Amino acid sequence: DSLKTQVCKTIDDARDRIVGIGEGIMDTPELGFKEHRTADRVKQTLEDLGLEFQQGLAITGVKAVLRGGKPGPTVALMGELDALQVPGHPRADAETGAAHACGHNAQIAGLMGAAIGLTQPGVADQLAGNVVFFAVPAEEYVEINYRIGLVKERKISFLTGKQELIKLGHFDDVDMAVMIH
Protein backbone atom coordinates (compact mmCIF):
# COMPACT_ATOMS: atom_id res chain seq x y z
CA ASP A 1 0.00 0.00 0.00
CA SER A 2 2.79 2.44 0.83
CA LEU A 3 4.50 1.77 -2.51
CA LYS A 4 1.25 2.38 -4.39
CA THR A 5 0.74 5.59 -2.41
CA GLN A 6 4.31 6.70 -3.23
CA VAL A 7 3.84 6.05 -6.97
CA CYS A 8 0.48 7.84 -7.05
CA LYS A 9 1.89 10.82 -5.14
CA THR A 10 4.81 11.05 -7.56
CA ILE A 11 2.39 11.09 -10.49
CA ASP A 12 0.15 13.65 -8.79
CA ASP A 13 3.17 15.85 -8.02
CA ALA A 14 4.19 15.65 -11.71
CA ARG A 15 0.73 16.70 -12.88
CA ASP A 16 1.85 19.89 -14.62
CA ARG A 17 4.67 18.08 -16.42
CA ILE A 18 2.35 15.28 -17.56
CA VAL A 19 -0.36 17.66 -18.73
CA GLY A 20 2.34 19.68 -20.50
CA ILE A 21 3.44 16.59 -22.41
CA GLY A 22 -0.14 15.96 -23.55
CA GLU A 23 -0.78 19.59 -24.46
CA GLY A 24 2.51 19.85 -26.34
CA ILE A 25 1.56 16.80 -28.40
CA MET A 26 -1.93 18.24 -28.94
CA ASP A 27 -0.32 21.36 -30.40
CA THR A 28 1.94 19.42 -32.80
CA PRO A 29 -0.23 16.61 -34.23
CA GLU A 30 1.41 14.24 -36.69
CA LEU A 31 -0.01 11.55 -38.94
CA GLY A 32 0.98 7.88 -38.87
CA PHE A 33 4.56 6.86 -39.56
CA LYS A 34 5.45 10.59 -39.44
CA GLU A 35 5.28 11.10 -35.65
CA HIS A 36 8.87 12.27 -35.27
CA ARG A 37 8.31 15.23 -32.91
CA THR A 38 5.95 13.17 -30.76
CA ALA A 39 8.46 10.31 -30.60
CA ASP A 40 11.14 12.86 -29.65
CA ARG A 41 9.00 13.99 -26.69
CA VAL A 42 8.68 10.39 -25.55
CA LYS A 43 12.41 9.75 -25.96
CA GLN A 44 13.30 12.92 -24.04
CA THR A 45 11.01 11.96 -21.16
CA LEU A 46 12.38 8.41 -21.02
CA GLU A 47 15.94 9.75 -21.14
CA ASP A 48 15.17 12.22 -18.33
CA LEU A 49 13.93 9.26 -16.28
CA GLY A 50 17.11 7.30 -16.91
CA LEU A 51 15.42 4.63 -19.03
CA GLU A 52 17.22 3.14 -21.99
CA PHE A 53 14.99 2.85 -25.02
CA GLN A 54 14.77 1.50 -28.52
CA GLN A 55 13.71 3.98 -31.17
CA GLY A 56 12.71 3.97 -34.81
CA LEU A 57 10.59 0.85 -34.34
CA ALA A 58 8.20 0.56 -37.29
CA ILE A 59 9.66 3.94 -38.30
CA THR A 60 8.70 6.05 -35.25
CA GLY A 61 7.89 3.69 -32.35
CA VAL A 62 9.71 3.95 -29.02
CA LYS A 63 10.05 1.20 -26.41
CA ALA A 64 11.64 1.16 -22.96
CA VAL A 65 11.68 -1.65 -20.41
CA LEU A 66 11.64 -1.20 -16.64
CA ARG A 67 12.98 -4.42 -15.15
CA GLY A 68 11.29 -5.55 -11.96
CA GLY A 69 13.23 -6.96 -9.06
CA LYS A 70 11.30 -10.22 -8.97
CA PRO A 71 10.27 -12.75 -11.63
CA GLY A 72 6.91 -12.21 -13.26
CA PRO A 73 5.12 -11.29 -16.47
CA THR A 74 6.02 -8.44 -18.77
CA VAL A 75 3.21 -5.92 -19.09
CA ALA A 76 3.29 -3.35 -21.89
CA LEU A 77 1.70 0.02 -21.24
CA MET A 78 0.96 1.51 -24.65
CA GLY A 79 0.17 4.90 -26.09
CA GLU A 80 -0.41 5.79 -29.72
CA LEU A 81 1.64 8.52 -31.33
CA ASP A 82 -0.50 9.54 -34.29
CA ALA A 83 -3.33 11.95 -34.97
CA LEU A 84 -6.35 11.88 -37.27
CA GLN A 85 -7.04 14.10 -40.28
CA VAL A 86 -9.66 16.56 -39.05
CA PRO A 87 -8.99 19.84 -40.92
CA GLY A 88 -11.85 21.67 -39.19
CA HIS A 89 -10.63 20.86 -35.69
CA PRO A 90 -9.72 24.04 -33.76
CA ARG A 91 -6.23 22.67 -32.99
CA ALA A 92 -5.57 21.03 -36.37
CA ASP A 93 -2.24 21.49 -38.10
CA ALA A 94 -2.87 24.02 -40.88
CA GLU A 95 -0.75 22.13 -43.43
CA THR A 96 -1.73 18.51 -42.81
CA GLY A 97 -5.16 18.80 -41.19
CA ALA A 98 -3.86 16.50 -38.44
CA ALA A 99 -5.54 16.83 -35.05
CA HIS A 100 -5.59 14.82 -31.86
CA ALA A 101 -9.35 14.36 -31.97
CA CYS A 102 -9.06 10.80 -30.66
CA GLY A 103 -7.05 11.43 -27.50
CA HIS A 104 -3.72 9.92 -28.43
CA ASN A 105 -2.01 12.94 -26.91
CA ALA A 106 -3.62 11.97 -23.60
CA GLN A 107 -2.55 8.34 -24.08
CA ILE A 108 1.08 9.37 -24.42
CA ALA A 109 0.78 11.76 -21.47
CA GLY A 110 -0.67 8.92 -19.37
CA LEU A 111 2.06 6.57 -20.53
CA MET A 112 4.74 9.08 -19.56
CA GLY A 113 2.96 9.68 -16.24
CA ALA A 114 3.13 5.96 -15.49
CA ALA A 115 6.83 5.98 -16.38
CA ILE A 116 7.40 8.96 -14.07
CA GLY A 117 5.70 7.15 -11.18
CA LEU A 118 7.21 3.72 -11.69
CA THR A 119 10.82 4.85 -12.19
CA GLN A 120 11.13 6.40 -8.75
CA PRO A 121 13.89 4.91 -6.58
CA GLY A 122 12.97 1.58 -4.99
CA VAL A 123 9.82 0.97 -7.01
CA ALA A 124 11.22 -1.40 -9.66
CA ASP A 125 12.84 -3.55 -6.96
CA GLN A 126 9.37 -4.34 -5.65
CA LEU A 127 7.83 -5.22 -9.02
CA ALA A 128 7.23 -8.85 -9.97
CA GLY A 129 7.93 -8.73 -13.68
CA ASN A 130 8.76 -5.99 -16.14
CA VAL A 131 6.92 -2.96 -17.45
CA VAL A 132 7.32 -1.95 -21.09
CA PHE A 133 6.57 1.66 -21.96
CA PHE A 134 5.61 1.47 -25.62
CA ALA A 135 4.77 4.46 -27.84
CA VAL A 136 3.37 2.93 -31.03
CA PRO A 137 2.91 4.56 -34.44
CA ALA A 138 0.17 4.70 -37.03
CA GLU A 139 -2.99 3.45 -35.34
CA GLU A 140 -5.33 5.64 -37.38
CA TYR A 141 -6.03 4.38 -40.89
CA VAL A 142 -5.33 7.55 -42.91
CA GLU A 143 -3.07 8.54 -45.79
CA ILE A 144 -3.32 5.06 -47.27
CA ASN A 145 -1.49 5.96 -50.49
CA TYR A 146 1.45 7.25 -48.44
CA ARG A 147 1.54 3.99 -46.50
CA ILE A 148 1.28 1.90 -49.65
CA GLY A 149 4.32 3.85 -50.86
CA LEU A 150 6.18 2.86 -47.66
CA VAL A 151 5.31 -0.78 -48.38
CA LYS A 152 6.56 -0.46 -51.95
CA GLU A 153 9.80 1.08 -50.60
CA ARG A 154 10.03 -1.91 -48.21
CA LYS A 155 10.07 0.37 -45.17
CA ILE A 156 7.03 -1.43 -43.73
CA SER A 157 4.98 -4.52 -44.53
CA PHE A 158 1.71 -3.56 -42.85
CA LEU A 159 -0.28 -0.34 -43.14
CA THR A 160 -0.62 0.15 -39.37
CA GLY A 161 1.91 0.31 -36.59
CA LYS A 162 0.96 -2.41 -34.11
CA GLN A 163 0.79 -5.05 -36.82
CA GLU A 164 4.20 -3.94 -38.09
CA LEU A 165 5.63 -4.07 -34.58
CA ILE A 166 4.26 -7.58 -34.09
CA LYS A 167 5.82 -8.71 -37.37
CA LEU A 168 9.17 -7.21 -36.35
CA GLY A 169 9.08 -9.08 -33.01
CA HIS A 170 8.77 -6.08 -30.72
CA PHE A 171 5.92 -7.72 -28.80
CA ASP A 172 7.69 -11.07 -28.42
CA ASP A 173 8.79 -10.22 -24.87
CA VAL A 174 5.32 -8.94 -23.86
CA ASP A 175 2.89 -11.18 -21.95
CA MET A 176 0.03 -8.67 -21.91
CA ALA A 177 -0.61 -5.14 -23.10
CA VAL A 178 -2.73 -2.39 -21.59
CA MET A 179 -3.80 0.95 -22.95
CA ILE A 180 -6.48 3.60 -22.53
CA HIS A 181 -8.66 4.94 -25.31
Keywords:
single chain; 181 residues; alpha/beta; five-stranded mixed β-sheet; two-stranded antiparallel sheet; 7 strands; 40% helix; globular
Describe this structure in words.
The chain is an alpha/beta fold. The protein is built from 7 helices and 7 strands. It has a 5-stranded mixed beta sheet, with helices on both faces. Helix 1 (2-13) crosses helix 4 (104-118) and helix 2 runs antiparallel to helix 4 (104-118). The radius of gyration is 17 Å and the shape is globular. The two termini are 27 Å apart. The relative contact order is 0.23. The model has no long low-confidence stretch (mean pLDDT 97).
Distance between the termini: 27 Å
- Number of helical segments with 4 or more residues: 7
Enumerate the spans where pLDDT stays under 50 for 5 or more consecutive residues.
none
Strand order of the largest sheet: 1-2-6-3-7
Structural class: alpha/beta
